[in-house]
Amino acid sequence: MAVAPLNTIAQHRLVPVIELDSAADACSLAEALLQGGLPLMELTFRTEAAAESIAAVRKRFPEMLVGAGTIVLPDQLRQALDAGAQFLVSPGFDPPLAQAVLKTGILYLPGVATASELQSALALGINTCKFFPAEQIGGARFLRVLADTFRAFSPRFVPTGGINLNNVETWLAEPSVIAAGGSWLAAKEWIRDRDWFAIKESVASSIRVCRTIRKA
Hints:
six-stranded parallel β-sheet; alpha/beta; globular; 47% helix; three-stranded parallel β-sheet; TIM Barrel
């Protein structure tokens, strides 16, 4: 069910959002993330390699928590589940899709950007959402207003969009934020160049930032 994946995300506080053009790179990328100290990843359905990539990583690295991102269609939901995705993420909030995901029992992080969308998610019993696009729609200050408005429901968020090593500390310091997601952890050019060492070092640097925040 959803408890274990959510706990893992909250524990590590970072979610690499990955767009892979080739499933052949999936396991090398997963290995780099693991070596950097991060046993989780979100593989987005922005490319046709997503489902195959998820299946490959699940088979090779059972210790890795693998999610499917950019789920916007029922067919993508089916492909993600068939591939073995352990959590699902959408960029927006679509009630019929959300209801379909909830029936599966899998952890689901729908995207919200407004009070109306968050209210709709909470009405379905979803209190942990993706906040997207985080920087572009008002940043941490706007998220703080949303969280306070609906504080009776204890909403929690995983912001993504415009987050990087320079501002992740600001986001992770927000009480309602359980983790921050983004592509900075495994930049597209590093994947293109198969620079797995750069990804490993990026993850390690970001983890050090997280540890500093925990001590504060």
